[in-house]
Amino acid sequence: MKRAPIVAISGHPGSGKTSLTKALQQRLGVPALHYDDYETMTASSAEKVRDWIGRGSNYDEIMLEPLVRELIRLAEATPRPKCVLFDTLLGRAHRATGELIDTLIWVDTPADIALARKLGEAAAKARKAGQAPAFVEWLEFYMAQYTGFIADTYPLQRERVRPGADIVMDGRAPPQRLADEAAAAIRQRLDLFAAAGDPKRTPIKTQGQRMLSLIEALDCPFGLERSVKLGAGAVNEDRFLAIVHKDSLGGQPDAGLRRIARELAMPEAMLDLLCRHLHEAEIVHFGYEGGKAGLYKIYAEFSGRVRRGLAKGAKPANELVHLAVKWRPDDPGSARVSRYVWPAEARGVEAIQRRLEAMRPAEGAFASVDAALAMIEAARHRCPDERIFFMEVEEEGSPRRSFDINFYSAGLRVAAVEGAVRRMADTYAIAPSGLDDLLSRIGGEPLGHLSGGMGGDGRDFATLYFGAAARRGAGRG
User: Fold this and answer.
1) What's the predicted TM-score (pTM) here?
2) Rounded to an integer, what is the distance from CA 325 to the centroid of its chain?
């Protein structure tokens, strides 16, 4: 990177984000900026704020040019800091500041606890200053505004900001432990940024680089996730996913998607299918898998369906999360459509375990399912059940029936599930020497997803995704 990574800490007012930022500043020895020192919205009249909320609370209407300039100045300073901390309510939902964020931490504190902390902090300041009558007057005014319109901003902020987080921390944890865990998570992310050009990592080969160069030409932030596919005596590391917000495709996202997909020879009928669903998507994933014949993949992700499914009181239903097209550029007839569905009957660890067990054949081993069950046991004690996210995959014109499980919220590294990976590799008859080399290189990476089940060839496979890291395009000029 040409500048220091910017690490943002977000949460509700009273979540503890500012205290956490200050504690991290001491632990990491890096500069920090605070949104509250630059915003002017709170100086506006209540009527003006209500009007803004009535118009949809567009975060981009909050003018923060001085803050943007200072963030860039600190990140490009000489000597270069390890990172720059950014305490902000808006996360990546505010375009001008969000585009600069490389890692976003969401301090997950329930709104009622956050409000109680905010009021308690104000009361403590007033008592210390001997201003109890003034505090009572302020409290009466604030609570009137809170019930009038402020309360509505809490769920809105959670809906807009939290889904963009790379790391979610439990804001109810003791401050010391929260700061220690956040510092460790940031150091881990910084190691990933530093390793982006590490020659020990498997390079992306020519055909994959073609896709990656088209993403980099967008000149926007994107996530880059690597993976390794295991099965039938083979290990394939020539794989990646580039994760892009739909808006980064341009003012007309369907035109931007068509331009990239046509460069990669996606069949027009499949491209039309993706574009018909693009209006509902928020994220687009661009993937590549090397091998005897390279395979390109583009996924539309419908994050809103997941948020609605997680909403309190929501009735479980099967939700389409990803619609994907996969094709070989030299063979248009190879194109397939895959649908990644969040089943209504797979909410919670026990339900996921039952779905996995149902995938087993009547006889014989099913190594990917065994590995998935072992990884769930390792993850379930590190995060709430609902953060272990399970999907089932079906592919048109193919016997594929597989699963995908997201483990990022557990904060595990690949080394924590090494035993499960080795048992799986042994079943696939993968040479131990090759596996030793692989695990020595990726053991310290964050554990991301495990995909597995029956592949398009009718055989068991497993793909381990790891180490999603923020990147930015090189620009068109």
Assistant:
1) 0.60
2) 21
